[in-house]
Amino acid sequence: QVQLQQSGAELAKPGSSVKISCKASGYTFTSYYISWIKQTTGQGLEYIGYINTGSGGTNYNEKFKGKATLTVDKSSSTAFMQLSSLTPDDSAVYYCARVDYWGQGTLVTVSS
Amino acid sequence: DVVLTQTPPTLSATIGQSVSISCRSSQSLLHSNGNTYLHWLLQRPGQSPQLLIYLVSRLESGVPNRFSGSGSGTDFTLKISGVEAEDLGVYYCVQGTHAPYTFGAGTKLELK
Questions:
Q1: Of A52, A104, B27, B92, which has the maximum CB count within 10 A?
Q2: Calpha distance B85→B92 (Å, rounded)
Q3: What distance in Å separates the CA atoms of residue B50 and residue B70, rounded to the nearest whole number?
Q4: Distance from CA of B54 to the nearest CA of A (A)
């Protein structure tokens, strides 16, 4: 069955970076784009962007340009999202999604 | 960015009751290709969002047919015909017609 398995929770310091992974299984990885979504209690769900898993092409929400970098490793059917220059406002649950399937979410906590 | 306004923010229902959730868009969601990229998600407590309805009215595989979607342009509705206990959670509309994709703030369905 289709699964998107995300990496575990991250505790990071302000100014640092984290890289979250999303390993796909149960389908042809390059047949579907992977999107990334941020969820916070205050802001709800926010769309970060998507990556074309075949070409590696990306499309970002302007709000997250410079904050998020999306990449993909076709050999391992894994998508990645790196978040840089972290601030407490980046604390959230981050999801990868194939529209019809979502990962379990990765909690990122930014604290000194 | 397109703003999706969901009402009501909270919905109290008894088992078996029929309920509706409204999602109004600040812009028409009719794409130039003729599709309307308005979808509905359900996030149960402690879980990732799951796709219920896509392209306004198409039922995702495995979703009970007590769920239905309707609407066009800027006004959309999700109806649950006979609420069951497993339907409790937060419902979100999401649009994919205009970049960046955006989400409604959610409607929490509770038991009365």
A1: B92
A2: 18
A3: 19
A4: 9
Structure token pair of residue B59: 């039922």
CA dihedral B13, B19, B20, B21 (to 10 degrees): 20
pLDDT digits (tens, 9 = 90+) for A43-56: 889 999 999 999 99
The pLDDT tens digits of the residues spanning A66-112 come to 999 999 999 999 999 999 999 999 999 999 999 899 999 999 999 99
How far, in whole angstroms, is CA A30 from its chain's centroid? 17
Backbone angles phi, psi at B72, to 5 degrees: -165, 160
pLDDT (mean) for B82-93: 97
Place of tokens 């990229």: B37
Sole residue written with tokens 């930014």: A110
Instruction: List, for residues B7-20, the tens digit of each pLDDT value.
Output: 999 999 999 999 99
Contacts of B32 (CB under 8 A, 6+ apart): none
CB < 8 Å from A in window 18-77 of B: 39, 48-51, 54, 60
Residue reference for tokens 């999202």: A81
